[in-house]
Amino acid sequence: MTDSDKILAVLKHVSLSFEKRQILQDVSLSIEAGKVLTIIGPNGAGKSTLLKVLLGLQTVDSGEVSLRANLRIGYVPQSINIDNTMPLTVKRFVALGGKGDAVKVLDELKVGHLVDSSIQSISGGEFQRVLLARAVMRKPDLLVLDEPAQGVDVMGQGELYEHISQLRQRYGFGVIMVSHDLHLVMAKTDQVICLNQHICCHGVPDDVSRHPEYQRLFGDMPDAGLAVYTHHHDHTHDIHGNVVPENGHGEDCQHG
Ligand SMILES: Nc1ncnc2c1ncn2[C@@H]1O[C@H](COP(=O)(O)OP(=O)(O)OP(=O)(O)O)[C@@H](O)[C@H]1O
């Protein structure tokens, strides 16, 4: 694999507004083959929009989005509606993702016993695993996951991130995922980007979790699993999400 093959996707200085409201501001990032990049940020920070930009589902006002030639992407969206009246087994649903052994992938995700269940009858946590299995069936180079652990209890979340990590090792794809729970994903993540319209901080999970801006955004997090923070930050955000230099909070600023 050449160096250029290792880079799956690149965003350069991407900015985007909806109805004159800035949603993404000067966002640059790259995703490497075989690596896990986690996007973390508060509600409305632009995380899902960022994934949609990457997927080509959302155009940008300025900046560049480039994907490696013939990049195959597996996507797990934040929500998906399935017609309650449609007779559909888990196996059939997963097989819709692509050619391959649906039962094997479901087994790898420890939901093999559900193959013949109706997709409407399984639990929220089981459904997240099934969605993941369907995305893996595409044999992706890049897996794009928008809050893959939503609706899953804390134990189950840890297991799900473990499964994502194992699948990544087995199949070799890169992963970009949105998560609200850095303390749970950090052990399974190579890089973290903390997003609040723009990139507030980024780096390895240990650094981001101790970052003042991350802590301002997420408040007190459980200490368990958090490691040492090592770099500095020079700004905060006002109530509208605008950047305010450190020691120069705006009138509306809600940060401490
Ligand atoms: N098509 C659209 N038109 C107008 N506004 C939009 C559109 N899509 C998203 N937005 C707005 O952009 C902002 C960012 O939305 P986005 O879904 O990217 O946030 P998020 O960080 O994923 O949030 P959450 O954690 O709550 O899922 C929100 O205020 C949302 O209402």
Helix proportion range: 25-40%
> Averaged pLDDT, please?
83
Pick out the low-confidence regions. Answer: 221-233, 237-242, 247-256
Architecture (CATH level 2) name of the largest domain? 3-Layer(aba) Sandwich
Keywords: ATP-binding, Cell membrane, Ion transport, Membrane, Nucleotide-binding, Translocase, Transport, Zinc, Zinc transport
Organism: Leucothrix pacifica
Pfam family, one: ABC_tran
GO biological process, one term: zinc ion transport
Description of the molecule:
This protein has 9 helices and 11 strands. The strands form 3 sheets. The protein has a 6-stranded mixed sheet with strand order 5-6-7-3-8-9, sandwiched between helices. A 3-stranded antiparallel sheet has the order 2-1-4. By secondary structure, the chain is α/β, with parallel strands linked by helices. The N and C termini lie far apart (47 Å). It folds into 2 domains: 1-72 and 157-162 and 173-248, Rossmann fold (3-Layer(aba) Sandwich); 73-138. Adenosine-5'-triphosphate (ATP) binds next to helix 2. This is Zinc ABC transporter ATP-binding protein ZnuC. It comes from Leucothrix pacifica. Residues 9-221 form the ABC transporter domain.
